[in-house]
Amino acid sequence: MPSQPTNSGIIIDEKSGERKIPESVRADGTKRKAIKIRPGYRPPEDVEVYKNRTAETFRSRGNGPVPGAESLVDDRNPGASSATVAANKNAKRREARKKAKATGGSVNGDAQPEAATEELDPKAEKEKKVRNLKKKLRQAKDLKEKKDVGESLLPEQIAKVIKINELIRELDALGFDQEGEPKEVGQPVDTNPPEATKSSPS
């Protein structure tokens, strides 16, 4: 008489002691042959999973309450639980926030002073812009000299050389000459600087 089948379907014949998977019928009606299992083989389905008690207690440590915590709460205040204490505290905080909003103050009662915005000095701003334009003009003139000597320039550098007249116009609009010095009233604007009128050597 065969024993009960294991998880993998293996049975042990009590007469011969052989382990085998018995014959079975497929869905189409054909029969599967019985499969003999060699002695000592245990399929993965039949291997019992090792259970470490220490690891299991460690994993389930957060599921239950803290041991002894209930008795402490009951001793201090038998009618109240920790959940209601926290709920009351939160309700008080909400009320305090509502009152603070209604009065226009903060929760702690100290209002933050508004930061005063500082206006930039127009004269300092103008000087900064002039310094920037002078620097760009000086760089553009240096690049133009390099170009006149015959050095090859990058496209960005050529664009800077082209902007020389534009930079001079901007300086003029701010009241400075092409060298970046404050110009005298009534001085005409020279859009072609001496460097620009030089002919390149050929």
UniProtKB/TrEMBL annotation:
SMART domains: Mago-bind. Transmembrane segments: none annotated. Residues 90-101 have a biased composition (Basic residues). Residues 1-150, 175-202 are annotated as: Disordered. InterPro entries: PYM1 (IPR039333), WIBG_mago-bd (IPR015362), WIBG_N_sf (IPR036348). GO terms for cellular component: cytoplasm; exon-exon junction complex. One of its GO terms (biological process) is exon-exon junction complex disassembly. Residues 17-43 form the WIBG Mago-binding domain. It holds the Pfam family Mago-bind. Residues 12-31, 43-59, 120-130, 139-150 have a biased composition (Basic and acidic residues). It comes from the Eukaryota. GO terms for molecular function: RNA binding. This is WIBG Mago-binding domain-containing protein.
